[in-house]
DNA sequence: CAGTGGTCTAGACCACCGG
DNA sequence: CGGTGGTCTAGACCACTGA
């Protein structure tokens, strides 16, 4: 163990920068420089209080900055640790290609296979409900009620994504799409069997901080944003046949797309 | 002005939930219900101290939660306000279509026009430099040095995006691409004139909390993540001719993509 | 048990804003 | 100037962890 003074400098009393920011800066720099590596424990609050000669709240303020940046996380009774970067799932632009469906794989499984992690789905709920204004706009204004399929995806035991699919009742009611298990290839395979040959998808992407309920559902650490993705599936007749609203833990994903140059 | 007790409830001393979380919950709910609207001033710390009968630090802790969620922002000497949602730029999947280039418009201008806001570019820097390992990987391992074009984009005076384009020297050196102003249609138009007919782009998207320097450059409020986008442009020969590394204020953007179903 | 972080208090002084 | 948020102190008690 290297001594603290050799890793962290002193404070600059002449600086305009608040003391707790200076402390946060020094800790951040130490992390960036690799003096503290992923998973390492930072000095305890008491140690920093002594090293810098400040009060405990000042040290805690510093930690709170780093937590907000997603750099560290605190574990009650143990310490404050450099947050390890979790393995990310790369979503490729061909993830909805028909050849995958024809192999009986859903998009999530295809990706999980590629990342060779253990995929799981839970908290499945399938019910009919009233369409929100936004969903109605996307599925066509005549669509008032929809079939909603909610599920949460886990990778290696960690929840990474919460998604709800909305389908018009005239398409989905009474079909296997309305069953908890939609069968091989997922609901997209069923839609095609029902005569809705898929033509393309549109995806809208936003990023923002999670709501408290999203923090809970995805067990998000402090300083982890979510990616909010809204996908609409269109059949060859030009009809929107499904809208999928997905909230993903941003630290678990890299999305990838191809754009035409023409 | 409605009185505080009619908007905010009391505390539940029997609850396990920390007092400052309960206060944050009540404020959040009041905002969600529309009791406080965008731009509205929340009760001052002193008012909440009195209303709840807690110490000031407890109230400030509540505010700090809401700030972390991006719901409110504090203005020194004025108060704490519900953060207004800024206008967003929608990036369409056809934003690099050749027809736009042929009209002499760069992608940013095309989008800004659509949003009818005042676009601006500043802090332009064009220089040759050593390619980072990642850039080198993307442009082809033989590419060691690159032309880097850095610029910041503003919309209605607000910085929303900071981007760096990297191009292999054998393509860009001595051309108009190496000039501060690359001419009508931007560097993609120049690349095509130089014989690199563009075929497609690949975009990689991540979301995360900003670094301190990104906070500064983009003047980000607390609780605003960034979207990190890395785009690679390929010519019809299959060569990567440009990599563009972009960091965007997440609250200013909605990205939109089309995916094939085949 | 000792060490850790989590919560909370009751003050203090400061910097900024608007009238 | 009074009111606002920004910073900081010096304590207190609690809950959780691991030996």
UniProtKB/TrEMBL annotation, chains A, B:
Alphabetically, the GO molecular function entries are: DNA binding; DNA-binding transcription factor activity
> Which Pfam families has this protein been placed in?
GntR (PF00392), UTRA (PF07702)
All copies of the HTH gntR-type domain together span 17-85
Keywords in alphabetical order? DNA-binding, Transcription, Transcription regulation
Name the Gene Ontology biological process terms: negative regulation of DNA-templated transcription
Q: Name the chain's protein.
A: GntR family transcriptional regulator
**What species was this sequence derived from?**
Streptomyces nodosus
Q: What is the lineage of its organism?
A: Bacteria, Bacillati, Actinomycetota, Actinomycetes, Kitasatosporales
